[in-house]
Amino acid sequence: MALTKKQVVDSAKDLGFDLVGFSSIQYLHSEIENLKKWLGKNYNAGMKYMEENLDKRFDPTIILPTAKSVISLGLNYHIEEDFENLPNHGKVSRYAWGKDYHIIIWEKLDQLISTLHEIDNKFEAKSYVDTGPVMDKAWAVKSGLGWMGKHSNIINRNIGSWFFIANIFNNFDFEPDKQIEDFCGTCTACIDACPTNAIVEDYVIDSNKCISYLTIENKNEITDEFNGKFENFIFGCDICQDVCPWNNKFSIQSLEKEFTPIFKEIDLNEFEEMTNSQFMKKFSMSPINRARVKGMKRNAQFLKDFNDHS
Ligand code: SF4
Ligand code: SF4
What we know:
By secondary structure, the protein is an alpha+beta fold.
């Protein structure tokens, strides 16, 4: 039996994906031009991997030669809880409160692809979540999951922007969905709220100034210009998404149990004596693992230094 779009949507929803959209395989001309301009200004900071594989980012048929369409998926991770602002603790970005989303989504993608293959054994696919040479946000926009907000996250009209994106390149010619128009309008809430002025123009983030980059991917010291500007985030930053009216009006509770918070606020003293193996034992299943023990020690010390002097 030939695989239908409805079967893909139903199978994805059965696995808990909140959003499903489709786009046709195409070269990403304007997206790659924008990426090149962004890289040219060194806005990728230390993320040198962003400079690699531009050919694959531009043309997904290098990754899967038979690719005809993309299935874009969204998984809502919003938990309807706030920070308690515990004394001497650092805040963790919402996406990292629970189990590592890569592990959760890879498992769902494997299951989805095997279900679709069972329905039609001609189905060939290659899937990505956040890793690999893929313009994940660009495909999510093309597949109609939402529009790119001025803070550069994708916003869906029904659930806001608290969702992870996955993409499946595949060899079926599914009818593309319509792209959603940009509903940011004249709003500048995210730009105004960013404490480090990292949104240097609409839709453009300078990672050198972004707390999310500075606390996770960054391998260097955090410089004094950021003293007192982290709003107590020790890992990541949610400020631009927190102030977005689309999140305030439309975010809904995630149904994914694995996103139940484990690390929402972390004791700043916890990392002082922590060894690498203790860190791995505690955080190996958490996105916090990405910052490594060295990064978390640095982040904790940075917040503590400021707190001690204020
Ligand atoms: S994540 Fe934080 S620092 Fe980065 S752009 Fe958003 S508000 Fe600014
Ligand atoms: S805060 Fe306003 S400008 Fe920023 S992404 Fe949301 S709607 Fe767009």
